[in-house]
Design brief:
Elements lengths: L8 H21 L17 H8 L2 H18 L1 H12 L5 E6 L10 H18 L1 H15 L1 E8 L4 E6 L4 E7 L2 E7 L13 H11 L11 E3 L4 E5 L18 H22 L2 E6 L12 H14 L4 E6 L13 H19 L13 H34 L5 E6 L7 H12 L5 H7 L4 H14 L35 H9 L1
Parallel strand pairs: 8-9
Antiparallel strand pairs: 1-10, 2-3, 2-7, 4-5, 5-6
Helix pairs in contact: 3-4, 4-6, 5-14, 8-10, 12-13
Length: 496
Amino acid sequence: MSNKKRPSKKKSSGNYNAIAQEYKSFASASAGVGSSSSKPSSKGITEERLKNMLNDPSKNAPQIASLSSRIKVSNGMYKRVINYLSSILTYDHMIYPVFDNPHEVTGDMSEMKMAYAQTAVFIDRLNPKFHLPIFAEKILTNGSVYLYKLDDSKGVAYQEFPISYCRISYIENGVYRYQIDISKISEKNVSDFPKEVQSAYSSFKNGNKEKLKDGKWHQVTEKGVAFTMDVDVLSQGGLSLPSLASSLIDAIKIENAKQNMESDSELDNTKIVHSKIETDDKGRPTMELPVVREYHNAVKKALPKGAVAITNPFDTKGMTLDGTGKNGKFALLDKATDQFFKGTGVSAQLFADDNSSSQALERSIQVDSQWLFSFLLPMFTNYYNYELKKATKKKSTWKIKFMYVSHFDRDEAIKTAKDQLSFGGSRLEYLAYTGMTPLEVANVLVFEQTILTIDDFMVAKQTSHTMGADSEKSEEQGRPPSDDPTDTTVRIKDSE
């Protein structure tokens, strides 16, 4: 028998496993495509979580308001809808006195004229045409706005309190009042609040909580006013949801669809550079794997962004991925966008969508305006009437009236008001529809007529309707008589 040792199968198997492992390791590193980082849901809140939050507004209203504010920054459609609804109204207004018996008005009329002028100045200090669009935008974005009136001899300003600090406590004469959570105020920001809140904070820190509701809620005086369009606010613990809260789900869908399209765009622009490894007749590489790996890594470093290096012994066929799944992504985005506008109730045609008729667009604007006429203007009217009542409580009572008109139908409203003048319609209403404020009415018209005597300079040009002779010479009025009058003219002259 031969004493020669036979090759160890275990050793041969070990070498084979080592070579196979080396090939496997190289194959896994031969295509450095890299994985794109997954993007979270819009603003870290999923659609399902938002739906659950909307079901419990008494707990989640501040978080939903914060989400609405963030989405308004990133989602152009959501922001445009809010801007459109908050600025569609003209906020034109007029003031008028309240008489016990309008048919028995007595007293010095000069005092009434002075009262009108002073009331016009007071309303102008409150500056509704400037503040109300801002208030409306905050209401639509956050669901409510908590304001504190600051006034002095120079003017009136409104300080806004954080939504997470406040809750509406009651409504009186159509005006919402609110409370502020003193426990959320700190030494760092207490100086930012009015003296009233600072005093409440000092009492809270000293342990005097008897005047605080539940030991932390301070009832803000009547200098504080809250606005909201959520009619269920008092049944929700004083917290309100944005009017477009349900559309936030669609806004998140749009953001997610856009993110998917961005991923597709990266895939569409990816280029592959293939380096083939030479092999022998048995399919084994003719170059050492460490050398091949060095070549592969050198190619990877030299490639620009968006290019991928692949090194293997196979014939690689280039296939374009441009447009793969893109039609579905576009359809998803279009569907989400369409659902968003349906959810807001606003016509997409307002924002460069031409899929509907002009009549449908006009009707959509009327519906949007009517919603604001029904909920927004009465709330603002109640607040300004409260301010007027407080300012004139020792004198005659005055009220404000906001015109139910938008920028889209202002011309028609002016025409209607002008036509009503011939039937005894209100001149003040007509002037309000044209955009003049009470202060402008009280000063501009008087200044033009009594000081500038503007009618002396702006004389109407003569036409065939205004031309004529001196009124004392009536026989010379009108156009010169014809040398050859018609039979009809002769009969008319004879009958005179």
